[in-house]
Structures are given as structure tokens and as C-alpha cells.
TrEMBL record:
Coiled coil: none
Residue span, GGDEF domain: 477-616
One Gene Ontology term of the molecular function aspect: cyclic-guanylate-specific phosphodiesterase activity
Native source organism of the sequence: Thauera aminoaromatica
Keyword Phosphoprotein belongs to the record: no
Recorded catalytic activity of this chain's protein: 3',3'-c-di-GMP + H2O = 5'-phosphoguanylyl(3'->5')guanosine + H(+)
Name the record gives this protein: Diguanylate cyclase/phosphodiesterase with PAS/PAC sensor(S)
Transmembrane parts of this sequence: 12-32, 295-313
Residue ranges occupied by any EAL domain in the UniProt entry: 625-879
Amino acid sequence: MQHNSRKILGVLIATVLALNAFIAGLLGYAMLEAKARKEREVRTTVENLALLLDQSVGSSVREIDLLLRGAQNRIERALRDKGRLERDDFDSVIDVHRDGLSQTAQVRVSDATGTVVLGDQVTAETRTSYADRPFFIDHRALDDGEMQASKLLHGRISNTWIVVFSRRYNAPDGDFAGVVTAAVPADHFQRLLSGLQLGPHGIALVRDLDMTLIARWPRLDAPAGVIGSRGGSQELNEIVASDVRAQSFYSARTADGVARINAYRRLERLPAFVVVGWGEKDYLAQWKEDVGKAMLLWALFLGVTGLAAWLLYRLVDANDRANERSRILLQNASDGIHITDAEGIVIEASDAFCRMLGRSRSEVIGMRAGSWDACHPEPDMRALISELFASSEVHTFETAHRRKDGSVYPVEVTAFPLEVDGRTVLFNSARDISARKSAEAEVRKLAYFDALTGLPNRRLLMERLERAQASCARQGTVGALLFIDLDNFKAVNDTVGHQEGDRLLVQVAAILVRCVRKDDTVARLGGDEFIVMLEELGGEGREAAEQAAAVGSKILAALNQRFQLGSSEHRTSVSIGVSLFGELADEPVDEPLRRADMAMYRAKLGGRNAVCFFDPSMLADVRARADVEAGLWIALEQRQFVLHYQPQVAADGAVLGVEALVRWHHPVRGLVPPGEFIPLAEECGLILPLGRWVLEAACAQLAAWADDPWRSRLVIAVNVSARQFLHEDFVAGVVAALERSGADPGRLDLELTESSLVTDVDKVSEKMEALKALGVGFSLDDFGTGYSSLAYLKRLPLDQLKIDRSFVRDILVDPNDAAIARMIIVLADNLGLRVIAEGVECEEQRDFLARNGCSSYQGYLFSAPQPIDALEAFLDARRSRPAR
């Protein structure tokens, strides 16, 4: 036996070591893979940012080139017409671009000798020459008609670091007459960099091709961070020397001592390059924390497996000794066999019985039956044993046994007297009953508990609420019900699927349980509705309300977080309605629940993510809401919905098309705005038939305009909800509407929201391609306010991006909104997409957008949404008026 135990011990040690080595290797591999995946994500991010910087710089350079070309043409015309150059000729060109360039460039003109004669900060006393500047020498030697951009120079007039853009101008005989230049201060590039969000240790810089620093963000108070200084890591120098266009790289030794992943990109229109870097401390912070957790997990696993191996060895060793001592019992019997004498003392026991009691065989032998029987006191047990000994029959009865750890479990015992070696003993066989009681408990669980979350269901909640009401009546206390509903939960199911939605519900349930006391009840009614019942909050309503409000606020804070669902993160919030109970005697058990439900809906109507207490006025609101919902279906049946149209215009004032907007023409209330019925239509499912009606009506209007040579060129844009677009019959419905109306598909534009696109991109693309094959166009509405992934922008066949009105509203006063609008315009230009801005309400907003390349607009500056008669009068007036 001792040899066998040593062998078993050796096998256990080897197994534990092998298993822990495997787990350690698996964790290490997973951590390395996670780090590599994170680094790939960071490389993609900084490469995209470097591309956007390149495009932003290119946009500025194109505008400067336009200015210089205009100045060159005007100067050459003045030399042909007047034979000389006057300041008025120069100023007339510069004034056209003054607003856009006053903060960007200073424009000057030199003659054929290089002497600066006109321009910003140039006076009669100015004695500055370009004769020795490389750009002047190149222009004098070669008339290639192209603009040149210099490396970083120190301005002789401005006395600051500048980049000079220059063009040659000629005398009437074609000879070299001088250059016109635009000096852009290095601070301009600093401002472009400062708009990037790169984290605490990120960096963005611009250097010219001889490694001279033009701009750096954030600024560095060190020699390496001084504008005009030369430097750069070894990796960067090697990349520049290789003459590649773009490349990402890792740098460990930097001027500020921060290791980073960087993206290098050679600028298109400038002899310089940009570098965007993300600090390793930032992007690996979570990974390092995960490594620590993995090490702790491995250490815990090592301890658990070691302990389990030791306990297993002890058990095997004990079984070996028991097997040697066994003489009577069938050691392989599944029932707990034990033999007692007339005093109820165990004289022999099977291993199964010892296990049932949780004791070793040495402990069981010699025990009295009363030591483990949990149902019979000692006197009753002695009487039962005497009765069994006196009878010659087999007796079966149910009782309960107590394990060594104090736990009790039900058993069925079969006992009869037996003669062994001339001695009468009692043979007992105990059977654990791991299964009948559990089945009964499972039936109760199915009847009273939610299968998904394990929380009490409505049935158990109502029983507990009834008991709590009775307790409040006896003790004079007050309780509270918190009705909790997840905000926008349907959008989760629509975008990531019901399986991920169920995962979210399970996580929410666990958070709710942690937010309340042990004796409080957390229940799930169904769907995304939960109830928290708080008992014994106090003797008066005010105290109870304050405590309930505190719990509600705690729940709001705990659930206001990001949840990882599938491959994306979703931020959730809840609306909570609160109702007290126990204040009214003999109140129906479901009345507090009904009040809490109404308070919850008031919280949703108030903007969601809030706690709202029941108020009697809510009863009227509930009835009004029900009336509106019923009225919506009647409105659809009785054709009370109408379309209003808001024009979309070009920079010259020409109308390009209209956006169709649904309105409810209520027979009593008049014109009901969409904000009052669209959200309710989404909730009650009306949005699908309503969306089909809008599409049919818009197609019919296109068909009605088909015979008008001017109106037939207009496009009608129709908003499509995420639920409508993701419906399996959406494509067939659009095709049917076009065929029934006879409308030109090329004049129909469908506006999608970003929530429509973040599910299965392949299926979304397949639907869009099917409709684009007919000529239907697609716009991405409210771009920049949601998911906004460059990945799906590249993959989906979009035609146009819409700049959301939230950016346009403050575009003149908020630098961030202005920067976002510019980047959307640049992004659309590079992806070959049209861009239109909505919510344009003043000339200044339109002018800003026009200067930055957006030439299509929609908003109250041009027209409010109008019914069809007013729209057609508006169109007729615009057609008769010449374009400005």
C-alpha cells in the first residue's frame, strides 16, 4: 500500500506541474496575442490620423496656391496693361482671400532682382531681398508654371520661422519679372496638430526633409522641441532616407523619453512629413493590468490544483487502508450500508456511508445513530432501534442525515434485523434522495425564478410584495418599489443580436443585486424590465422616499458604464420609476407596481437616465399616451400623415433636391411635430408601415415631377430608420414602390443612420448594392455623432455624407466643431463622396462651409420644411430668379 501511495503521489505531482505549465503557456500566449492585436489597432489609428493631417495640410496648400495663381495673373495683367506694378493691383487679389488667409499666410511680391516691393508688412523703408533664397533662384532659372514650397526658413521680415510658397511672374515679353510668395508661419502647422486627441503621452510633429522641426504637439521644453532644430530618432532617419511614402514604426528612444508607435507620412504638397505617435504607456496600460490579473489567476490556479492533488492523494490513501480493513461490506455498494448493534452503535460501515456523512471510516465506527440523524432526538432514536430489533420485517422510512460540516440532506433508510455469528445486528441501507428533492426544487425554481438571470420572477415578486404589505401594516413601516427599464434596449438587440442582449441583461441583474441590501428583492418581470423591492425603509413617507431615491441614484451610477457586447462597446442607462407602499391600508397588491410603472415612463419621457417618483398627474399622462398610440394607427388608416419637404441647395443658390419629412395632420390638434410621435411609433412598431408609406409617397411625388423638365432633375431624400432598413423585405419594398409609381430610381436618395450600418456590414453592403444597381443613391445621415468607423465608410457604397446640425450650430464659435466639419469635408473629398451640411441658419455658417469646400446646404437660411404646394411655389420663384 505504501508503494502504491508513493506512485500515486508522483503521478499527481507530475500532473499538477504539467497542467500548470500548460496554463502558464496558454496565458502567456494569450497576453502576447492581446499585445500584438493592440499594437496593430494603434498602428491603424495613427496611420489614419497621419493621412488626415496630410489631407488637411493639402487643403490649406491648395487654397494658398489659388491665391498665388490669382496674384500672379493679376500682376502679369497689370504689367501688360500699365507697364508697372501698383499696390492696388496686389491688394485687389489679396482681399478676395483675406478672411480665409489672414491667420495663415502673409503675401509679398519681389521684383526681378529679388527686392521685396509689395505685401504684408512691406513699406517704402523695407530693404529685404529674396535674391539668395533657393526658391527665387529656381524660379528665375526655370519657368515651369508650378508653385514651389520651401523648407523651413527664418523670415527676414516677420522675424519668425516660416514655410514659403512661391510662384514666378513674367514680364509682357515672357522674361522673368519676379516672384509672388505666401509666408506661412510655423504656428499654423502647430494649430493643425493641436486638434488631435492622442492621449497623455501622444505626439504629432511636422519636419521638413532635412529633419528640421516645423511644428510639434504637445510642445517640448527642451532643445529637441525648439522650432527650427534638427533631430529625430534613428528609426525616423532611416525611414526618411528610404524615400518611402508612408510607414509605421516603433521608437523606444525619443527626445522626451516616451516609447511610442508612430506613423510617418510624406506630405503631398510640401517638402516635409508628419509623424503621429501614440505613447506605449497609454495603449498598453490596460494590457499590463490584464497581465497582472493573468499572473494572479495562474498563481491561484497553481494553489488550487496543488491543494486538490494533495486532498486527492489523502483520499486515495484513506481508501487503500479502508479496503484492507473491510471484511463484511460490499465496498462498491452505491448505498450507504451501515450495521449497528442493539445500542445503535456502528460496528461496520461501507465507504459510501462514510462519504455520505463526510467522515472517515475511523470516525464512523463507534458512532451512535443519534449523532448523524437530524430528525430523531436520542430518546426517539433508541425507541426506533428497539422497535426495529423486535420486528422481523423490513422497514423503510425517510429521515435526514447530518454531515460532519453540519449540512443536512434527505435520505431513505431501509432497515431489518440480521443474525451474524450468533449475534443480532441491524442492517441499514441509506439512500440519498442527489435527485428527487432537487427535482422538486428545480420545479419550484422554474415556477418562481427567471430562467435567464436567476432572479425572482413576477409570480414570486407578487407573493413577496403581498407579504411585505402585510408586514408594513403590522409594524407601521413603509417600503418602496423601483421599476427599472433599460433605455434603448431594443437598439442593442437590433445591432448586436438577442444573444448579446441576453448577456447584457445578466450583467445588469448582477449589478442590481450588488446595489441593494441582502434582504431586499431584485426581480425580473420580463424583457428589459426589473423590479427592486425595498422593505422596512422607515415609519413615514419622506424618510422612505429619501432612502429609495438614494438607492435609485446608486443604481443609475452603477449602470452608467460601457458593456462589451460582441465586438463593440455599448453604453447603457436606465429609467427608474419609484412608488411607495404600506401607507394605504388594504391596497391591492398590484397597485404599487402599476404606480411605479407609470413613474418609469415619466422618467423616459423626461429624457431617460433618471429617477422619477409617482405623482397622481401621471395617470392622465398615461391615458394621453395611450390615446396618442391609438391615434397613430387611426392616422395611418385614415391618411392623416402628410409629407413636408425641405430644399437642399448648392452654393450658387440652385435647388438640388428636397428632403421628405413626415408630419401628422391631426383632425383636432392640427399639425403634430415628429418629435411627439416618431419615438412612440418606434416603440409600438408603427415605424415599419409608416416608413413604407413615406417611401411610397415620395416615389409618387417623383413620378408627378417627371414631366416637368426642371423639377424632374430634383432628388428626393427619404429618411430610413435602422429597424426599417434591417427588415428582411426592405429591398423588395423599395423596388415595389419604384415600380408602382414609375419614379426614376436615380432621383431617390435614401438617408441611413449609423445604427443601420454597425451590424453585419456584408449584409448591409449587399442590400445597398442591390438598390444602387437600380440607380438609388445613399447618404449617411448625422455623420460623426455615432459609431463613425472609417472601415465601413470604405466598404459601403455611399454617395454622400451629411454634416450633422449639432456641428453646424456652433461652427463659428466652437473650434472643435469647426475642426470636425473640416475633417468630414476632407474625408468625403478623399473618399470621392459628396458632402452636405444640414441646419444652416445664417450666412456666416454658409460662408464658412463654402470656404472649406462644402458646396451643398440645407436649413432655415434657405427654407423651412413646407407642404407640397408651398414647395412648388418656392421652386418656381427660385427658377425665375437668376443664380447669384
